[in-house]
């Protein structure tokens, strides 16, 4: 019985072995089809820099010109490769292994060590290129920049930052690009003075920000203090001093602006009614002249211009040559004031008896001896010879000179003259009664 069973077990052994082999092969085929080998490109894996201090210890600074990311091709079983992303890898560049051409090889490995034995990694480009420069330092002032407009009826005033000078260090080419360091603050709608912590921004000559991770500043922020005050519109009043060149007159004076908005504490603004500009000297001038003055030089203490861009006072002055004109007069053209009834007056002139006018043609062309209202006053003068003074109405923008002299011979009236006057009076009265 036992022999029969043993014989049955070994019957057809060759077929049984062949079946087993076929089963294994079929299983392996099925497994290979289900988990076949594949390749996958993974891009933009960020590269971490290591041992950068080895460069900095030499007084140098570096910047990466290319190779901040790396692309790889991964090969392996589909079940392992297919789910992989860039987040499953770490890429490093050891700057201590810098070549003479300033390049470093990039290494990439899977974060899960078990994956590394199952995949092959090839690189699309695994080179990081560096730019190495001397490290320089310079000091720069901080410029304040206010964005937006404060509330209507208010104006920003003095603006200071602390610190107002900072130190910047970094690659020479980057530091030299920086032309300005700004502290920027938005003031839209504000009406109260404030103190704020403000971040700093480095700018180049084109107004673009300069950003480089190798740049270092001794401070990243500053404290900004800004005064904001109410405004007030006041007129600008201009006066001139001195005399133009001989024979010339100032005929036209224009200036702009004729009013400006100033700002300051309310208690100060209440006392300001105008801005007075008195430094315009016309001495010796004969031709048209234009000049600009700074309004800030004439502002009352404690005030400032609400619009700093409106600081220039433009002035235009024009001059014209004066002309002369003479008017002949006689003693009959002169009104005598203050006569006494008991005295007689005989006026006489000597020399060239004329009125000489000097001024612009438009101001003296219509002047007459009647409009001059020539007068002399003999009030209180006693009998005898007297030199008299002539008075006159001075025409606008003109000068008057009396040429020649006027004298009066004053005598007392005789009794005959008095009687004659009395007789004349009686005759007149009688005629009236008749």
Q: Which characteristics define this entry?
A:
alpha+beta, 16-stranded mixed sheet, four-stranded antiparallel sheet, 10 helices, disordered C terminus
What does this structure look like?
The chain has 434 residues and is an alpha+beta fold. It is built from 10 helices and 26 strands. It has a 16-stranded mixed β-sheet that branches. It has a 4-stranded antiparallel β-sheet with strand order 20-22-26-24. The radius of gyration is 54 Å and the shape is rod-shaped. The C terminus is likely disordered.
Secondary structure: elements and pairs:
Elements: H1 2-10, H2 13-34, E1 37-50, H3 53-56, E2 60-66, E3 69-77, H4 78-81, E4 89-94, E5 103-110, H5 113-116, E6 120-123, E7 127-147, E8 154-162, E9 165-171, H6 172-177, E10 180-186, E11 194-203, E12 216-217, E13 221-241, E14 248-256, E15 259-264, H7 266-269, E16 275-281, E17 289-294, E18 303-305, E19 312-321, E20 323-328, E21 335-337, E22 343-359, H8 361-364, H9 369-372, E23 375-377, E24 384-388, E25 390-391, E26 398-412, H10 415-433
Parallel strand pairs: 1-4, 7-10, 13-16, 21-23
Antiparallel strand pairs: 1-3, 2-7, 3-6, 4-5, 5-7, 7-9, 8-13, 9-12, 10-11, 11-13, 13-15, 14-19, 15-18, 17-19, 20-22, 22-26, 23-25, 24-26
């Amino acid at each position: 019985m036992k022999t029969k069973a043993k014989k049955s077990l070994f019957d057809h052994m060759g077929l049984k072995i062949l079946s087993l082999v076929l089963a294994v092969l079929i299983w392996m085929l099925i497994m290979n089809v289900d988990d076949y080998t594949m390749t996958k490109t993974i891009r933009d894996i960020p590269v971490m820099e290591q041992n950068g201090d080895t460069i900095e210890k030499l007084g140098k600074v570096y910047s990466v010109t290319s190779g901040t990311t790396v692309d790889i091709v991964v090969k392996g079983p589909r079940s392992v490769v297919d789910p992989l992303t860039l987040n499953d890898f770490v890429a490093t560049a050891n700057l201590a292994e810098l070549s003479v051409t300033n390049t470093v090889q990039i290494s990439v490995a899977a974060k899960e060590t078990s994956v590394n034995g199952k995949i092959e990694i090839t690189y699309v480009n695994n080179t990081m290129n560096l730019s190495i420069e001397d490290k320089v330092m310079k000091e720069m002032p901080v410029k304040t920049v206010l964005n937006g407009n404060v509330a209507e009826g208010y104006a920003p005033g003095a603006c200071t930052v602390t610190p107002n000078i900072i130190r910047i260090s970094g690659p020479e080419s980057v530091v030299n690009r920086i032309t300005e360091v700004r502290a920027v603050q938005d003031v839209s709608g504000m009406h109260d003075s404030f103190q704020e912590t403000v971040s700093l921004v480095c700018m180049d000559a084109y107004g673009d920000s300069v950003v480089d991770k190798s740049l270092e500043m001794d401070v990243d922020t500053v404290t900004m203090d800004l005064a904001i005050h109410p405004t007030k519109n006041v007129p600008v009043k201009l006066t001139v001093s001195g005399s133009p060149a001989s024979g010339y007159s100032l005929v036209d004076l224009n200036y702009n602006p004729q009013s400006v908005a100033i700002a300051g504490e309310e208690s100060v603004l209440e006392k300001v009614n105008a801005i007075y500009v008195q430094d315009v000297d016309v001495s010796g001038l004969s031709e048209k002249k234009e000049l600009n003055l700074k309004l800030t030089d004439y502002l009352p203490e404690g005030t400032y211009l609400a619009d700093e861009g409106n600081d220039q006072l433009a002035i235009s002055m024009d001059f014209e040559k004066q002309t002369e004109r003479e008017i002949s007069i006689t003693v009959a053209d002169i009104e005598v004031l203050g006569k006494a009834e008991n005295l007689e007056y005989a006026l006489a002139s000597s020399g060239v008896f004329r009125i000489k006018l000097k001024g612009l043609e438009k101001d003296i062309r219509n002047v007459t001896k009647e409009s001059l209202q020539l007068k002399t006053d003999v009030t209180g003068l006693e009998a005898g010879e007297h030199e008299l003074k002539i008075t006159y109405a001075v025409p606008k923008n003109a000068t008057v000179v009396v040429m020649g002299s006027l004298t009066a011979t004053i005598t007392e009236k005789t009794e005959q003259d008095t009687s004659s006057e009395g007789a004349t009076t009686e005759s007149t009265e009688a005629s009236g009664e008749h």
